[in-house]
């Protein structure tokens, strides 16, 4: 799936000034993560994780 077709969103913890933000998009089997500074039209680097891996990662942050 092209990352252009995904619906990306920023965390509610991200400020409106830009800077160091991540954007996330989900599909049933994959969590897609990218740096918000990358131009979406350029289809910059994207990290792809399974939902289980994403859940383990976010659980480790708390």
Explain what you see.
With 62 residues, this protein is an alpha+beta fold. It has 1 helix and 4 strands; from the N terminus they run ββββα. The protein has one domain. Strands 1-2-3-4 form a 4-stranded antiparallel beta sheet. Strand 2 and strand 3 form a beta hairpin. It is globular and about 30 Å long. The model has no long low-confidence stretch (mean pLDDT 81).
Mean pLDDT: 81
**The biggest beta sheet, please?**
4 strands, antiparallel
Strand percentage: 25-35%
CA radius of gyration: 12 Å
Helix residue percentage = 10-25%
List the total number of helices: 1
Domain DUF397: 6-60
InterPro entries: DUF397
Protein name: DUF397 domain-containing protein
Pfam family, one: DUF397
Write a brief structural summary.
The chain is α+β, with helices and mostly antiparallel strands and 62 residues long.
Blueprint of the fold:
Layout (H helix, E strand, L loop, with lengths): L8 E2 L11 E6 L2 E6 L11 E3 L1 H11 L1
Antiparallel strand pairs: 1-2, 2-3, 3-4
Features:
62 residues; alpha+beta; 18% helix; 4 strands; 1 helix; globular; 4-stranded antiparallel β-sheet
């Amino acid at each position: 799936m092209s990352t252009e077709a995904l619906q990306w969103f920023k965390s509610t913890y991200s400020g409106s000034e830009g800077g160091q933000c991540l954007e996330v998009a989900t599909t049933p089997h994959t969590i897609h993560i990218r740096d918000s500074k990358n131009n979406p039209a350029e289809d910059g680097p994207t990290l792809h994780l399974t939902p289980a891996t994403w859940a383990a990662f976010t659980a480790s942050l708390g």
